[in-house]
Amino acid sequence: MVRRRTFRDAVVLVTGASSGIGRATALAFAAEGARLVLASRSPEALAEVEHECRARGGQVLVVPTDVTDPAAVERLARLAVQRFGRIDVWVEAVAVGIAGPLGSESVDEIRRLVDTNVFGTVLCARAALTRFHTQDDGVLVLIGSLLSVFPNPMVPLYSMTKFALRGLALNLQQAVAGHPRIRVCLVLPGPVDTPFFGRAANHSGRQLRAIPPAYAPERLAATILACARRPRRQATTGLLSHLALAAHRIAPRVSESVVARWGATFVTRPAPAAPGSGSLFEPPPAGAAHGGYRRGRARRRLGEWLGAARVRRNRPAQR
Hints:
Layout: E1 11-15, H1 20-31, E2 35-39, H2 43-55, E3 59-62, H3 70-84, E4 89-92, E5 98-99, H4 107-135, E6 138-143, H5 156-175, E7 182-188, H6 196-199, E8 201-202, E9 206-208, H7 217-229, E10 234-236, H8 239-250, H9 252-266, E11 268-272, H10 297-306
Parallel strand pairs: 1-2, 1-4, 2-3, 4-6, 5-8, 6-7, 7-10
Antiparallel strand pairs: 9-11
Helix pairs in contact: 1-2, 1-7, 3-4, 4-5, 8-9
């Protein structure tokens, strides 16, 4: 993939674009003048982010899409190419979650989780790479998690799906190794302040939250843009995330135990919560980039400092 200085007129497809990481990423690409294809389950929420992206100067095509539907994913890719002629970057940011010990959820909830986070990602990766091979160019960005590396017994099934996504990324990276202009990047975020936690299926008995100190989704969006500009196999955001991954390389068993205990303890609040399926089966009508978990100036500043993206200065673009 040729390195870019700017994304002006690049065609960028973002799934999960109506909320959280996907929404922040879409807005960041729009600010650089990209031509955007935005997908999520909620037409109402997509209309909101479409308006925001157009206000930032981006050209936008909105395609309501359920990534668990093979025909819908193919339609998404086809409409993107019909409208803009190609796809330069595909950011796969769809994710749903389940919290609670194994056995507390329903079988239907498990199926929906795996269908969305694993099967849906496979369908999108297949559609993206098919177009990239046709045009001999493109970057696929998969959004994993620190839970692609570390266990968390409070969200065991969600973590399992993120381990699967990391396995997919590693295999796809080898599959495209002979095509230097096609790249697959894996991004492993730490705790991010998005609506994800309030919309996850919750059987923990307590309210969920982003593990403090969470950082703003715009920080992660900056890392995603950096990967699309200068593709690399794996990237993360924030000092704590870098330290956690470094510790795992040195002492995997110890670091897994520490992170699992920390995550399981701090991903919930003391306040009780009734069990529910969240947005697993029905998308919320409205979207937002932020979840409202970064309250207090000191906490926000700490999250910003620990979550500061390490974005290297880019080399001159060749196109």
